[in-house]
Design goal:
By secondary structure, this protein is of the alpha/beta class. It folds into 2 domains: about 160 residues, 3-Layer(aba) Sandwich (Rossmann fold), CATH 3.40.50.150; about 40 residues, no CATH class. It has 7 helices and 7 strands. The chain has a 7-stranded mixed β-sheet with strand order 3-2-1-4-5-7-6, sandwiched between helices. It starts with a helix and ends in a 12-residue tail after the last helix. The structure holds S-adenosylmethionine (SAM).
Amino acid sequence: MKQSQRLQQIDRMVTRHYNHIFDCCCDHGFLGQALLQRNIADTVHFVDVVEPIMAELQDQLERLYGTGYPRNSWQVQCQDVAALSLPKDGSTLVIIAGVGGDLLIDLVTALVSAHPDRSLEFILCPVYHNYKVRQALRELSLSLIDEQLVHENRQSYEVLHLASSATDIEAEPISPVGKRMWDLSKTEHQQYLDRTIAHYERMSQRRESAVGSTSAEDIVAQYKALRLPRPLKPEKC
Ligand SMILES: C[S@@+](CC[C@H](N)C(=O)[O-])C[C@H]1O[C@@H](n2cnc3c(N)ncnc32)[C@H](O)[C@@H]1O
């Protein structure tokens, strides 16, 4: 099974064992299957709303993993992610990738609101609207464990690994424009930054309102500041 660069990157960002991993909006379940094969969760849950695809996935998983894998090592759930009931106990990672920014915000907001006391981790990879997504995730008090930029077919994708406020993992605030994912010595990173700035400059010229109360001009300034040299860390004595 040939995995996209984007899904391979998400797979690499799962670096520890969880009791439950939810591959949400899983479509054909390629990512969940890669995780299942790594034996990195007690149970990998495949969740999507499209019934025929989920029925096909159920058959495929039964054929491939029906014997030889523990009975509960995978589960197929055909339902809306927004209405998902997450397990009450155990470490839980929720992955949502390959959906638009607005839908992703709605799904994460619904899950966080329905499970206010649960320690949750998320790996999120929206298609477009990254600034808006990051702002919304900050408002949900999620914090950053890791972030990476991945490029595929002339598209760039931001992948965020986050913790809910109830998690005791060391995490930092989410930057609306990204921070540690950038490596501007790489051409692809520079090109992605240039495209993003050009997008908000066009919005600013059209005087379109940008994201909530933040103007397109402000967003341009925040992205441009990434090009400035970072202050050197003081040397330890
Ligand atoms: C483009 S696919 C993404 C597949 C895979 N996650 C990836 O990143 O390549 C988007 C999937 O999201 C599913 N989807 C959209 N809204 C959903 C929702 N509210 N709940 C569950 N699945 C949803 C669609 O059925 C579709 O299979």
